[in-house]
Amino acid sequence: MSKELNFIKENPMGFLATVDENGKPRVRGFGIMITEDNRILFGTSNKRRTINQLKVNPYAEWITKSKNSSTLRISGDVVIEEDMQIKLNTIENNPVIKKLYAGREYEFEMFYLDNVEYDWFEMK
What we know:
This protein is α+β, with helices and mostly antiparallel strands and 124 residues long. It has four helices and seven strands, in the order αββββαββααβ. A seven-stranded antiparallel beta sheet has the order 2-1-5-6-7-4-3, with helices on one face. The protein is globular, with a radius of gyration of 14 Å. The model has no long low-confidence stretch (mean pLDDT 91).
C-alpha cells in the first residue's frame, strides 16, 4: 500500500471541499473509507447538498491531518458509484454507515475521486 493510502487509513477523518451553486467554496467534515482495491470512497445522503454540488461540479478536494501536523490533500474528478451491490456491501460492513442507512439504502450515495493528485505538507 502506498504512503498516501497508509496515511489516510491512519487519519480517515478530514474535510471535503466542493463548490456550491453560486460558485462559492463549501467545506465540511467528512470521513472516508478505503476499499480492498485501494479506492478512496466517500458516502453521504442524497438529501444533502454535497452530492448535488458534486453532480453539478464533479471536482473535489479532501484534506486530513496527522497528530504531528503533517497534512495530505487529495483532489480529483468525482465519480458517482452507481453499483447498488457495492453500496449494500458498504452499509453491511461498516457499523457507522449501517446505523445511518440500514433500511434507507436508496438514500445512500457513494463517490470516489479519479485522476487523483496528492499534495503533502509535513512539519519538519
